[in-house]
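Try this one yourself first.
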């Protein structure tokens, strides 16, 4: 038919109805037909199925109108609008050494007003963990920075910048943001621990641990076949505590 249109609802319904109705009869006729007639029927069935697939494909086009099988007015598929961006917090990873709070604020304030900034640091040493968070006052500025500055090469490090949705921002994220961390002097801590005054029981426990390590060392030297006499440790034998007795006689 020259007036046939793929967008019309009738050909698809008619084709599917026709195929479903004649399929039982085809099985009966197929037994009585010759080889040539069977080939011709297979070709016609293939053409009908190809026509049906073309009609379905035309309806799945995003610009085509949705037409129900029962007829009726067409409806266009409404595409969902993009959600409004409200994220102002950015996650920044792969921060290089030397790019700290002061340098980071001076670098990112060229895009907009920086509200808060925090770099994750070790509580004991105060060293950077090479990731942090940055907050802008304007969500549009935050989106531009996330899109344009992601994978930006800085001091041989590719910055990883991503938007953090408002519902995923932890309430304690900005706790202690302006507090400076003083690194712990581990050398001083070890010195105090070594030079502290010990009781007699603590001193004996320390000596026993030293003797135990020395005995293991002697065994390893002997097993290695080395003829060596290790010197005795000084202070191996500790004097017992003296007991003071008071006499009953009084002058």
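Now uncover the answer:
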């Amino acid at each position: 038919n020259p007036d046939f249109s793929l967008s019309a609802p009738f050909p698809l319904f008619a084709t599917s109805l026709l195929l479903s109705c004649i399929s039982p009869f085809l099985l009966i006729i197929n037994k009585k037909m010759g080889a040539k007639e069977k080939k011709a029927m297979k070709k016609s069935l293939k053409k009908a199925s190809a026509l049906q697939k073309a009609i379905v494909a035309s309806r799945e086009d995003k610009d085509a109108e949705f037409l129900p099988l029962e007829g009726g007015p067409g409806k266009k598929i409404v595409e969902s609008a993009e959600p409004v961006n409200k994220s102002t917090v950015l996650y920044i990873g792969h921060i290089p050494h030397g790019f700290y709070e002061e340098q980071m604020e001076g670098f990112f304030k060229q895009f907009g007003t920086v509200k808060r900034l925090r770099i994750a640091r070790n509580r004991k040493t105060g060293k950077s963990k090479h990731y942090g968070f940055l907050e802008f006052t304007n969500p549009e500025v935050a989106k531009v920075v996330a899109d344009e500055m992601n994978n930006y090469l800085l001091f041989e490090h590719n910055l990883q910048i991503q938007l953090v949705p408002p519902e995923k921002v932890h309430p304690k994220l900005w706790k202690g943001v302006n507090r400076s961390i003083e690194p712990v002097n581990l050398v001083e801590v070890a010195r105090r621990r070594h030079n502290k005054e010990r009781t007699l029981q603590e001193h004996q426990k320390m000596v026993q641990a030293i003797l135990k390590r020395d005995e293991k060392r002697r065994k390893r030297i002997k097993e290695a076949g080395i003829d060596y006499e290790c010197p005795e440790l000084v202070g191996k034998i500790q004097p017992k505590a003296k007991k003071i007795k008071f006499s009953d006689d009084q002058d």
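Discussion: The chain is about 40% helix and 15% strand. The first strand starts at residue 89 and ends at 93.
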